Amino acid sequence: MCTTQDMRVLGAVAEASPVMIWTTDATNHVNHVNRAWRQFFGVAEANLSEIDWRQFVHPEDYDIYVSGFAACAARREEFRARCRARRADGQWRWLSAHGAPYFVGDVWSGMVGSSMDITEQVEAEALVRESEARFRHVLEHSPVIVFTMDDQLRYTWIHNEHATFDTQCVIGRRDEELLPPDEAEALTKIKRSVLTSGVGLRTEHAMSVAGFRHIYDLKIDPIHDPDGAIVGLRAAAVDVTERKRLEEALRSADRQKEELLAIVAHEIRNSLSPMTNAVQLLKRAATLEDRRIEILERQLSHLKRIVDDLLDIARSSAGKIELRKKTMRIDLVARTTIETVSPQVQAKQHRLKLHVPEQPVFVFADEVRICQVLVNLLHNAVKFTPAGGTIEVEVRTEGNEAVVSVRDTGIGLAADKQMQVFAMFGQLTTPAGQAGLGIGLTLCKRLVELHGGSIAVRSEGPGHGSEFLVRLPLARAPSRSQASELSDDDAGA
User: Is 385 helix (H, G, I), strand (E, B) or coil?
Assistant: First the structure.
């Protein structure tokens, strides 16, 4: 039996509780509540007898909540439910209520219970459900296989709506129970490395599924418990078999195309040699005024350069270009290159300017190939710059790179064309309406990249000229003896 003192203590505890505490009488009307309840509903203690708690229940929850409470009271059973209730400020809040029957002696006296504002919890649960729904939607419409494993590398969960196998049959099993021994061993090794290191990885892995060989893009990450210990793995796998097949088909098509180009170029070059010899014989017999021979010789030279570029493209694709690198002065190579194209520059009355630094600029490169790159860029500048335009070549250093800029006042490039000029057969049209073959810049890009460098183009748009930038790693300046050898070579050239 509780003493009067005990009842006072219990009453004080209930009054101070942040949880809403209440009792109802045998007719289900509230007869005692604590401060938290009064504050929540905005009811003064003096007015409690005039209040029907059911008026605070949301209309959509009223029937289920109120009838449920009455049924539990009638059966003298515990009551648990949620409902929305109107707070004193007019807001609807979610409450969780728990009531239990109480008796005075053997006489049923009503229910005693508590209510808690769980609005934040309900909203959080709704967000979780929404997130889970989005996740399920992604899984159901995605070709990705997602799965988890425990620290013994047993499958604990797997999902893939498009799987060609029964995903549930793998739960609780290891790879060695599902795959051929060699495949299982390789896959287990990958997974154990993540378990051991705690570092996720991404790799491609081939395995047999439902009797067919598949290639998967596999991403594996460790699962940690609250203390940070690794307790398993989570992974996602995308079947990329078809993509790999298409990529190989494209590579094969590229190889066949470039092999065909090489064959055609060889055949054309075989015909060029006797034609060149015939032109030389004609020159000996021709008069000084006969310009037809000059035209024929110039066109043969142009055709030979195109054929050589085609052959170099084919060689670079096959990895057969051998670079003969040495420490060289790229500023001197730029000067030599300008001299090479000066006849074409003069023919179109271009202004050609060279800017080089006072100090030598050294790179470790194949001089012939770098000269080939610069000649191609200058030929392009001449071809796409109207008569009387300006072409500037500048050599400078930026950080640990040597930079060669070939800038012109030609036709310029639209933004979309700047992305295409280095692609094979990416043709542009000259001011005279002629189209290039579209292989020179492709070759330039491949040769520069073989040297560990890069090439880029920039233009402010059509009619505003273009600038091609070749970047190569700087080389250390040679010793005095090496510099002397370089000077001798340059003088001899």
Answer: coil
Interacting residues of 490 by C-beta distance below 8 A, sequence separation 6+:
329, 332
Tokens of 261: 């180009």
pLDDT tens track for 379-404: 889 989 999 999 999 999 999 999 99
- How high is the pLDDT of residue 417? 78
Question: Is 129 inside any structural domain?
Answer: no
Q: Does 435 fall in a domain? A: yes
Residue after which a domain boundary falls, among 215, 239, 263? 239
Q: What is the DSSP string of 288-317?
A: TT-HHHHHHHHHHHHHHHHHHHHHHHHHHH
- The H-assigned helical ranges of 198-288 are 241-285
- Strand-pairing partners, residue 235, are 147, 220
Please check whether residue 64 lies inside any domain of the structure.
yes
Angle, vertex CA 457, rays to CA 452 and CA 460, nearest 5? 160
What range defines the domain where residue 85 resides?
4-123
69 token code pair: 């409470």
- Orientation of helix 291-317 relative to helix 241-285, angle to 10°: 150
DSSP helix/strand/coil, 54: helix
The continuous run of DSSP H or E covering 8 comes out as helix 4-16
In a domain, 448, yes or no: yes
Domain count, the chain: 4
Residues 63 and 107 in one domain: yes
Which has the minimum average pLDDT: 94-108, 117-131, 200-214, 456-470? 200-214
- Mean pLDDT, rounded, for 447-460: 91
| Pair of tokens at residue 266 | 């060889």
CB 191 within 8 A of CB 183: no
What is residue 314's predicted lDDT score, i.e. its pLDDT? 65
